[in-house]
Design a protein that fits this description.
Helices cover 48% and strands 19% of the residues. It is of the alpha+beta class. Strands 6, 7, 8, 9 and 10 form a 5-stranded antiparallel sheet that branches. A 4-stranded antiparallel sheet has the order 1-2-4-3, with helices on both faces. The chain has a two-stranded parallel ribbon with strand order 5-11. Strand 1 and strand 2 form a beta hairpin. Helix 1 (25-35) packs across helix 2, helix 11 (360-377) packs across helix 12 and helix 11 packs across helix 13. The longest helix is centred in the middle third of the chain and has 35 residues, at 269-303.
């Protein structure tokens, strides 16, 4: 058998395999001999069919089976021996002139190669690590929302100052149809808020989306439109009122403090604000960490340019998975996954060049932290060390879980290495400023 590679470019090649008759003839003959006692042809007793008739009836199918076995095994061994680093799996090329009756058969397979590139984690970057501060404006607003949430709700028929108004925003052409509840103070223009006063359940008000709220991102919440639309959205919407309520704020007393934070945890407004600030900034820290990781990934991709075998991968995506994709669907899937693939290749190259190792203590610590986080999500805020250690021992007794956790530890260490090399600057911001930065505004 003759096997060779034909380079198309740095990341695309074709494997050409020529299979002579001697590589499959003996096995086909053996299969025919095995078939003879079982062969049935009209006019002959079972097992007494002449060999030439058996060959005529079964020979081609057996030849196809045996040749495919030879080709598959030879292809696997060739890829291993050449140490080819592939993206996807080889794709057979269609040859309209191919004839199974030929004694010597030639097969061609397209392959996509992992690109060669140099890794540079010390490249200059302007990455920012945000520290989000819960400022007084946010804290005062949160206190007011808590008083409103735990206060008394009084149904109204006519809208008055300070009421909440529920209803549906509609613009059929723009695809807007969303029921929501609006605090009149959210409107940017006082005249818009005043236009609601005196209105009653069933009334409809026409509003302009441009500049409707203090923050354009509120359109995402109130009108259920995507972020890409909020800044340029300039249409009329009809808001039809279906409910009006007034709120009697809850009194800030020990009963409310105990209900919110547990008996005796806090006893004053100042302590309440401090607790809200602590909890909010913990949540903000997670969001800031997620943005930092996303920015690091984007920077690594930007700093490492290399070609991918796009055309090959789009074709390959059409052949994998339970649902076969059309060329257009495969193109969309490639566009969706390209960024992740690039980062995966960068991460793999960095891992190969680094000295990152995982010991059992790393594995235990990471597993324990993951378990505590999961327990917190289910309301178990303060599990004992013994409880956590028992679950860790059970998880790490499963080899599949050990492998999965080990991969996560390595990925976590790699991200920390990337962040360390990026050397981000620290910037304190309010949550509103962080949201603007997150959307590059």
């Amino acid at each position: 058998m003759d096997i060779k590679r034909v380079a198309i470019n740095a990341v695309n090649e074709v494997i050409v395999m020529t299979v002579p008759q001697m590589d499959y003839k003996g096995q086909v003959a053996k299969r025919i001999n095995e078939k003879m006692p079982l062969a049935t042809v009209k006019g002959f007793r079972k097992g007494a069919v002449p060999k030439d008739l058996v060959e005529k009836q079964y020979g081609k199918a057996l030849k196809i089976e045996e040749v495919n076995k030879v080709v598959e095994l030879a292809l696997q061994r060739y890829i291993q021996s050449e140490r080819l680093n592939l993206l996807g799996t080889p794709l057979p090329k269609i040859n309209e002139a191919f004839n199974w009756n030929d004694e010597e058969l030639t097969f061609e397979f397209e392959i996509g190669l992992v690109p060669e590139f140099e890794i540079n984690l010390d490249a200059k970057s302007d990455i920012v690590k945000y520290k989000i501060i819960a400022d007084d404006t946010m804290l005062n607003g949160q206190v007011a929302r808590i008083q409103k949430q735990y206060g008394n709700v009084i149904s109204q028929q006519i809208v008055a100052q300070g009421n909440d108004v529920s209803g549906t925003f509609v613009n059929e052409i723009a695809g807007i149809n969303n029921r929501t509840t609006v605090d009149l103070d959210e409107f940017a223009d006082e005249n818009v808020a005043k236009s609601f006063l005196g209105k009653k359940v069933g009334d409809a008000i026409v509003l302009h989306t441009k500049g409707l709220f203090h923050d354009a991102h509120k359109l995402m919440d109130y009108l259920s439109v995507p972020h890409d639309n909020v800044h340029d959205l300039d249409v009329e919407v009809t808001f039809t009122i279906d409910e009006v309520v007034a709120h009697e704020p809850a009194t800030l007393n020990q009963e409310l403090f105990d209900k919110l934070f547990g008996a005796g945890t806090i006893s004053s407004l100042e302590e309440m604000k401090a607790k809200i600030k602590e909890d909010a900034e913990k949540q903000f820290a997670q969001q800031a960490e997620q943005k930092l990781m996303a920015d690091v990934q984007d920077t690594l991709i930007e700093n490492h340019k290399f070609d991918l075998p796009k055309e090959f991968l789009v074709k390959w995506l059409q052949t994998v998975g339970d649902k076969k994709l059309s060329p257009a669907e495969a193109e969309v899937e490639y566009s969706r996954s390209e960024k992740g693939l690039r980062f995966q290749l960068i991460e793999g190259k960095a891992l190969a060049q680094s000295n990152i190792q995982v010991n059992f203590e790393d594995l235990k610590a990471f597993t324990a932290a993951s378990i505590r986080q999961q327990m917190l999500q289910y309301g178990q805020t303060n599990p004992t060390d013994a409880e956590v250690e028992s679950i860790v021992a059970r998880v790490l007794s499963n080899q599949d879980e050990v492998k999965r956790m080990s991969e996560q530890v390595v990925a976590d260490k790699m991200l920390k290495l990337f962040v360390e090399k990026a050397n981000p600057s620290i910037k304190e911001v309010t949550y509103e400023q962080f949201v603007a930065a997150m959307y590059n505004e």
